[in-house]
Amino acid sequence: MMIDWARDRLGVGFRDDARAIGCRDDDGELVGVVIYDTFSSTFCHVHIVGSPGRRWFTRDFLVHAMMYPFRTCALPRVSALISEHNEAALALAYKAGFVEEGLMRRGGSDGDDLVLLGLLRDDAEALWLSAKMIERSARRFAIL
To answer: What is the CATH number of domain 2-138?
Structure first.
């Protein structure tokens, strides 16, 4: 359900190994999803999809979004590909700790160049996964 919701909004498909974490508003409506796919023993890709104009990607949600690849899956890194023209998504990724690692020329479905970003587990642990951050966010979200 969450993966279909994200696919409908983003207009691209996800791989068969895709997993998702979603955020619902107070009315129970899905407002944002983080998709993880293309899993290997060393990384996965991360995709963030949200309803336009909705503020859902909070610090608490980010903690939980980071827990899945780094704590549950024990991956050493995650990667993201973002259109060079998607300034909002790039700003969010940089704020979350992602670092630019390269450029995939004409890699987007519309021919846009894609910025390759990466986040290492050590950096995510320092920024988002301290015991204090997890405890704080657990008051708002159930940790499963």
So the answer is: 3.40.630.30
